[in-house]
Specification:
Blueprint lengths: L5 E6 L2 E8 L2 E5 L7 H10 L7 E5 L5 H4 L2 H8 L2 E5 L3 H6 L10 H10 L13 E3 L2 E3 L7 E5 L8 E5 L3 E5 L21 H13 L4 E4 L5 E2 H9 L4
Parallel strand pairs: 3-4, 4-5, 5-6, 10-11
Antiparallel strand pairs: 1-2, 2-3, 7-8, 8-9, 9-10, 11-12
Helix pairs in contact: 6-7
Length: about 230
């Protein structure tokens, strides 16, 4: 299977990804509010025309993923792709942080109530329910509903085995946190089921929004140990 070229762009503390399509690009997430210049500078440095950003996939609607979505849509005319269960959040410009599922997540959850994590609201163009084939957009891959972190979380999965999963998984090195485990989840049962979905599809490598990419075998270890 021929690999699809993609770039990792760190916007604040969030990893965004730019996937090359046949006639342009698909951007995955838009980073923190106020950090959008990082993306535009990346496009400029690599001579990527703004109108070649055809689609913006939002893995979910937390502020560190949707912060630049409204401006991206305005400047590039990209169509926003999101799960149907996240539309209300996107159009209101606010999505609450889920419950912490480990020590660090619980600490962050307590502090999160001190700040309203809002962003500029924007309308979605393409709604995902269960699965969306990307062949019509010039990419050999799919967008899959992978709930758990939020009820409407989605992942973009390339046929070559890479999965861009938003916060379904994380890989930030901190004490007492296993590689792959997210810090927050609305539903740990659905989180685990979504991990199993990725493995059943033959995903080889996980690209989270926070931390470095890792081999899917680390995720398999979490499942086998009953984590999640």
């Amino acid at each position: 299977m021929k690999s699809t070229e993609f770039f990792k762009i760190k916007v604040g503390y969030t990893n965004c990804f730019l996937v090359e399509a046949e006639n342009g690009y698909i951007l995955i997430d838009s980073g923190l509010p106020g950090e959008i210049d990082i993306l535009f500078n990346f496009f400029k440095d690599r001579e990527i025309p703004l109108d070649s950003i055809r689609y913006l996939v939002l893995t979910h609607t937390h502020y560190d993923h949707t912060g630049g979505a409204a401006l991206i849509k305005e400047k590039t005319e990209a169509k926003i792709i999101i799960h149907k269960d996240e539309v209300e959040n996107l159009e209101s410009g606010y999505s609450a942080i889920p419950r912490g599922v480990n020590l660090w997540g619980k600490v962050a959850e307590k502090f999160s109530i001190l700040v309203r994590h809002s962003y500029n609201p924007v309308k979605a163009d393409i709604l995902v329910e269960d699965e969306l084939d990307l062949k019509g957009m010039g990419v050999d891959g799919i967008i899959l509903h992978t709930p758990g972190h939020t009820k409407g979380s989605i992942s973009l999965i390339l046929a070559s085995g890479e999965a861009f999963v938003g916060d379904l998984c994380m890989n930030v090195k901190l004490p007492f946190v296993k590689r792959g485990m997210t810090y927050f989840a609305e539903d740990k049962y659905l989180l685990r089921r979504s991990w199993l979905k990725l493995m059943d599809l033959g995903v080889k490598r996980i690209f989270p929004s926070h931390g470095k990419d890792f081999d899917v075998e680390y995720l398999r270890e979490l499942v086998n140990k009953g984590v999640g």
